[in-house]
User: Fold this.
Amino acid sequence: MRIIPAIDIIDEKCVRLSKGDYATKKIYNEDPLEVAQQFEDAGLRYLHLVDLDGAKAKHIINWKVLEKLAAKTQLQIDFGGGIKSDSDLRIAFECGASQVIGGSIAAKNPVTFTSWLTTYGTERIILGADANNGKIAVSGWQEETDQEVGSFIEGYVKKGIQHVISTDIAKDGMLKGPSFELYASLLAKLPDLKLIASGGVSSIDDLAKLREQKLEGAIIGKGIYEGKIHLSDLSDF
Assistant:
């Protein structure tokens, strides 16, 4: 199972939210590069970078942060937040993203998102399937749709999608464990899915259980920043 530390960006600073609520913003570091280099020095190879300003504005904003981290580390970066157009996607790849996440665009403009799969290939595009009460949430989690998360993912699997990041919003930033039940139900339905857990990971035991469930990856954010998980403890993964 891949371990993927997270950096969320507001005003070019490393922050975390709780349940996607911007009012709960907490700044952990003024310099995202310093944080990324700490991850790299610990032997980690991947990074989940989210442009929270972009998610709210509905277009990419913090591309300079992406560009700097891609240029000054060897981390393989998946990037999301506000990717709504062909030009946003092109900027993200030009700035060094290895993969780009489409969430709101996949729910609201499936024609465009599907064209990205054809143009860039399914290895480079990740489906963001963030759930609130079992339904897909979009626009920086400010809006809930009527699309059931399992059916939403299944529809894109039929179109070739391979990688999916799914966050149970109720778990995000709460440090009370990930949504094991959600992931179990998704993998029971789609056993070949490369599913990446996100939200609530707060201990090594959480990671071990996700690995037992055959998750392809696990994103860790606040668990690291709040000292619940130490980078040195991740070597077993």
Observations:
- The CA atoms of residues 155 and 161 lie 9 Å apart.
- The longest strand covers residues 2-10.
- Residues 110-120 form the longest helix (11 residues).
- The chain has ten helices and 13 strands.
